[in-house]
Design goal:
By secondary structure, the chain is of the alpha+beta class. The protein has 5 helices and 7 strands. The protein has a single domain, classed as Gamma-glutamyl cyclotransferase-like (Hypothetical upf0131 protein ytfp, Roll), CATH 3.10.490. 29% of the residues lie in helices and 36% in strands. Helix 3 packs across helix 5 and helix 4 crosses helix 5. The mean pLDDT is 94.
């Protein structure tokens, strides 16, 4: 059995919740990070959905790559499915991700990593919302994992900590902070 690579682009970056051997910044082509999924559990409810990240087609996305030891592979996949597939709004895919770090010794520069892509056919797929719509939803939503705003601001803070730019998400965070939350 081989080691498992996992690509995180939202809360998995700052709260993976599983054991890993190493982590690196990674770049995925063909998808971009978007606040495009209505959350009915972790950051909202069916009555008052929040918004969480998804990978949407087009562009590119930088996030975190985690290498999981082969003997932990099945347990981590089970954990990820329980965490990410609560309402089946994501499609589990294996995608090629380039390791951005030049400090990797003995690892390939591109790895096949498990990640979760937003299912555009799912009822919880929000698509592209305006900045105003996002602000309104994120300000007032709360789920089992806490306030929606905490999720967005934690993700933005983590992206800044690891020098990853995300113009749209940063604009949302700036707007949320400006309205006093």
């Amino acid at each position: 059995m081989r080691d498992l690579w996992v690509f995180g682009y939202g809360s998995l970056m700052w709260r993976p919740g599983f054991p890993y051997e190493e982590s690196h910044i990674g770049s995925l082509e063909g998808y971009h990070r978007a606040l495009c999924v209505y959350s009915h559990v972790y950051r909202g409810s069916p009555e008052k959905p929040g918004l969480v990240m998804g990978l949407s087609a087009g562009g590119s996305c930088q996030g975190m790559l985690f290498r999981v030891a082969a003997d932990q592979r099945d347990a981590v996949i089970d954990y990820l499915r329980a965490r990410e597939q609560v309402t089946s709004v994501y499609l589990e895919e294996v995608v090629p991700v380039a390791i951005s770090s030049d400090k990797v010794l003995g690892a390939p520069s591109i790895v096949d990593a498990v990640t979760y892509v937003a299912d555009v056919g799912h009822e919880q797929y929000a698509g592209r919302l305006s900045l105003e719509e996002q602000v309104k939803i994120v300000q007032t939503s709360h789920g089992e994992a806490g306030p929606n705003i905490d999720y967005v601001l934690n993700t933005v803070d983590h992206l800044k900590d690891i020098d990853i730019e995300d113009e749209e998400l940063f604009a949302l965070a700036e707007r949320l902070r400006a309205v006093g939350l």
